[in-house]
Amino acid sequence: MANRSREQNHLLAALSEEELAPLEPWLELISLPRGDILARPGEPIEYAYFPTSGMVSIVALMTKGLGAEVATVGNEGMIGLPIFLGAGSSPFHLMAQLSGQSIRIPAQRLEMALLPGSRLSALLRTYSQAFFVQTAQNAACNGIHPISMRAARWLLATQDRAESGAFYLTQEFLAFMLGVARQSVGIAVGELADQGLISYARGQMRILDRAGLEVASCECYGIVRTEFDRLLGIARA
């Protein structure tokens, strides 16, 4: 696999060629179309994924079809932490939210590479902490902050992963991700658009004023981003 592909994922990029050598035969670059399901609740997780582009949502679904996004993963991390933690499955849906590419490896091969004291094990421990911060902060955000702030936070995080100011997003999908009514999201999106921060038409979301959207967001976006940058050594332009 080309080095350039591996370098697009922060975890794999942090490994030396020597550390990557045992994994190399099993690494496979694949496409992840929007809406693709990577794993379902309770089923064995067959692969770990290291995204190089796009974004994957971890979604909690309830019995009546309602649900909400628990966390998101982009090229800063890995999908499949239960493999590292020894669980092998989770109660969540893992779904590609933005089309992209990912490097995947069979779960069994990843487990074999997780030797005590290895650089990969250390990286995944650190990433687990950053991921925990994200899920905990999201839970606090959902319980405290108004929908308009939460929507702004979500749009900023999505733009980071899309690496573009424009991406496809329906209000129905955003409502599902935030775990709120479609009407409530419509009002929040309208407020952000009235402030000149975004434009939205026929599923096409465009960020017009990134700095203004950060002001409109709650502090949760900055807390999570800062923690990921600190723990994983991510340098941003």
In words, what does this structure look like?
The chain is an alpha+beta fold. The protein folds into two domains: 3-115, Jelly Rolls (Sandwich), CATH 2.60.120.10; 146-217, Orthogonal Bundle (Arc Repressor Mutant, subunit A), CATH 1.10.10.10. 46% of the residues lie in helices and 22% in strands. It contains eleven helices and ten strands. It has a four-stranded antiparallel sheet. A three-stranded antiparallel sheet has the order 1-7-3. A three-stranded antiparallel sheet has the order 8-10-9. A hairpin with a 2-residue loop joins strand 9 and strand 10. Helix 6 runs antiparallel to helix 11. The protein is globular and about 55 Å long. The chain starts with a helix and ends in a 5-residue tail after the last helix. 38% of the residues are buried.
Give a brief rundown of this model.
This protein has 2 domains: 3-115, Jelly Rolls; 146-217, Arc Repressor Mutant, subunit A (Orthogonal Bundle). It is 46% helix and 22% strand. It contains 11 helices and 10 strands.
List the helices and strands and how they pair.
Blueprint: H1 3-7, H2 10-13, H3 17-20, E1 28-32, E2 37-39, E3 47-51, E4 55-61, E5 67-73, H4 81-85, E6 93-98, E7 100-106, H5 107-113, H6 119-144, H7 147-162, E8 166-168, H8 171-178, H9 182-194, E9 198-201, E10 204-207, H10 210-216, H11 220-232
Helix pairs in contact: 6-11, 7-9, 7-10, 8-9
